[in-house]
Amino acid sequence: MFDCELISRDASHFAGFSFSGPFPHSFPSEAVKVQQKLGSRKSEFTPNINTDVVFSPYYVCDNLATYFACYEVPEGNAIPEGMVSFKLPGHTYAKVTCTNQTIRDGYGHVLDWIQKKGHKQLNGACSIEIFYIEEADEEKVELFIPVE
């Protein structure tokens, strides 16, 4: 169920909202709120943007985390007012597929897999959660952990 693999992702451009706050105290509740905020404004994106896939890059440093809820957008694309846009560099990632109901287990499996395969998590790079929105109780999620 939790098959892990190495994949490479090219640089991507994103637009959406972010939250920074104490970790782990504020999570996952604040992550859910920022995703809901993005979803409530998806109609403001141009029709060429896939709003059924939410990208959530995040970065944790000691006890502080910054978490994004974004859609992938073409470089230079106009973004709705009040949102942030940024380019995330490409990396090699350890990837696991799980669901929004099994995300904690997914993290456990991919982090164990990274260690067993002799990889090292890349410090200073964003991990990414990718949510495939289906308006169901259980939805597909992919976890990407940057490795070197």
From TrEMBL:
Protein source organism: Paenibacillus filicis
SUPFAM superfamilies given in the database record: Probable bacterial effector-binding domain
Gene3D superfamilies noted in UniProt: Regulatory factor, effector binding domain (3.20.80.10)
Protein name per its UniProtKB record: Effector binding domain-containing protein
Domain AraC effector-binding: 2-148
